[in-house]
Write a structure and sequence with these properties.
Elements lengths: L1 H4 L12 E7 L2 E7 L8 E5 H7 L8 H12 L5 H13 L6 H16 L16 H13 L18 E4 L4 H17 L5 E7 L8 E3 L4 E3 L2 E3 L3 H12 L13 H4 L2 H9 L5 E7 L12 H21 L3 E6 L4 E2 L11 H19 L3 H10 L9 H10 L5 E10 L6 E9 L1
Parallel strand pairs: 4-10, 5-9, 5-10
Antiparallel strand pairs: 1-2, 2-3, 4-13, 6-9, 7-8, 11-13, 12-13
Length: about 425
């Protein structure tokens, strides 16, 4: 019986996929996709199948899943149909198991062989042609929602860090521009630590890569000297999940802005780092090993920066709340619930303006992360790495992400 319990074909475990409700006339469906890009497949299922997939947790057997379906809908889901569903999901690389593990090994080996990290979203989320991209970026600054070109109150000051969204550039670009205008006008260093949000999750909380990044505006080199120092001082385990960078957009979306505002005037280098850990790991005793791993990484990175003797600016690529049915809420947000969310966001960001990372973690933990703050790990890490006197929210906005009014909120911030 123990062997059967370990058989993924009998106890299927769905991978950490993203999903979104969609509507076609009067029918509702759910769309699944793989945020890691390991699978390029999309899966659209009706709501009864969505109910089934919620039990693909590695704990329920196919017989138990069938029984749950019968209890819920009053009809049998025939075993051959269930087995075919499992086979189809395995074929699409949507289920944990040997097939996915082999695909992951192959993807990691291919990533490590590659000479650099190519632009994965150019021509999709932003202009793929360099000249057109420059025009697009300029348009973000001059648009009605953008910062325009009036001088910043912090012009000429030394900037320590910024927070910018990682939402689709074509939509959120003007909000990015508020942070990058501050960067453009400040006294900026040559090295930028970019803390991205890893949407697929990470076992080690952080994933570092030594790959240079390519965009339509050219190649952005990593600071190899600082990365070697970090590696030699004990940072090697944090390179284990470097292939997470292959299809993650949160760092890539910052680079055209960084190249356009700073890189066009002076040579720059970056430290590209993906992050993913919950506030609870810094508070709950049961999650202390994860919190200690976070502390270890940040200490190693701080030491590498100090030993290099270089000034750095830290960029946190982060979104804030995710509310609505796409993100697990039972009903769409109303105008009232959005305004309440906005007020809570701005209250939460006060702790960030005050450079209080512990209060930031406590705030989200206290509300049990009901609003799914996806940028916590990047913003918290920024607060631990910088030495600044003040932070400031520059602009706050939201975007609707589906037919059911599901909403993502985000902000631009600067630290001096």
């Amino acid at each position: 019986m123990a062997d059967t319990a370990k058989d993924p074909k009998q106890f299927p475990l769905l991978r950490n996929l993203q999903f979104s409700p969609i509507k076609d006339k009067d029918e509702q469906y759910v769309l699944f996709w793989d945020p890691t890009g390991l699978s390029v497949e999309k899966l659209v299922v009706p709501l009864n199948y969505f109910y089934l997939l919620q039990h693909f947790d590695g704990e329920h057997s196919l017989d138990q899943i069938g029984a749950q379906y019968l209890k819920k809908f009053g009809e049998f889901f025939m075993p051959d149909r269930l087995e075919k569903l499992v086979a189809d999901l395995e074929e699409k690389l949507f289920l944990e198991g040997e097939r996915v593990e082999a695909a992951m090994r192959e993807a990691q080996a291919a990533f490590r062989r590659a000479p650099l990290r190519p632009a994965a979203f150019a021509g999709k989320s932003y202009e793929g042609d360099g000249e057109k991209l420059k025009v697009q970026l300029e348009g973000f600054f001059s648009s009605r929602e953008g910062p325009d070109f009036k001088p910043s109150a912090n012009k000429g000051n030394q900037i320590k860090g910024i927070v910018a969204p990682h939402y689709e550039l074509s939509v959120g670009g003007p909000i990015y521009a508020w942070a990058y205008k501050e960067l453009q006008e400040a006294e900026t260093p040559d090295v930028f630590v970019i803390l991205g949000t890893c949407h697929a999750g990470l076992k080690n909380c952080f994933a570092v890569t030594d790959k240079d990044f390519e965009t339509p505006l050219g190649i952005v080199p990593v600071n190899k000297e600082m990365l070697v120092r970090f590696r030699q001082n004990g940072g090697e385990p944090f390179f284990d999940e470097d292939s997470s960078h292959r299809n993650e957009h949160s760092i890539e979306f910052q680079l055209p802005f960084l190249q356009h505002t700073v890189g066009s005037k002076k040579p720059i280098t970056i430290l590209p780092i993906l992050s993913s850990f919950p506030p609870a790991c810094l508070i709950e005793p049961t999650l202390r090993p994860t919190g200690e791993r976070v502390g270890t990484f940040l200490s190693l990175l701080k030491n590498a920066i100090v030993e290099s003797g270089k000034e750095v600016c830290v960029i946190a690529s982060a979104e804030l709340a995710h509310i609505g049915m796409r993100y697990g809420d039972p009903t769409p947000p109303t105008d009232f619930s959005f305004h309440r969310c906005m007020q809570t966001d701005l209250e939460m960001l006060k702790t960030v303006e005050e450079l209080n990372g512990d209060a930031f973690a406590q705030f989200i933990h206290k509300e049990e992360d009901r609003r799914r703050i996806s940028g916590f790990s990047a913003i918290y890490s920024l607060l631990q790495l910088i030495q600044a006197e003040k932070g400031q929210v520059l602009r706050y906005d939201r975007s609707v992400t589906d037919q059911f009014n599901s909403t993502v909120t985000y902000a631009s911030m600067a630290f001096f």
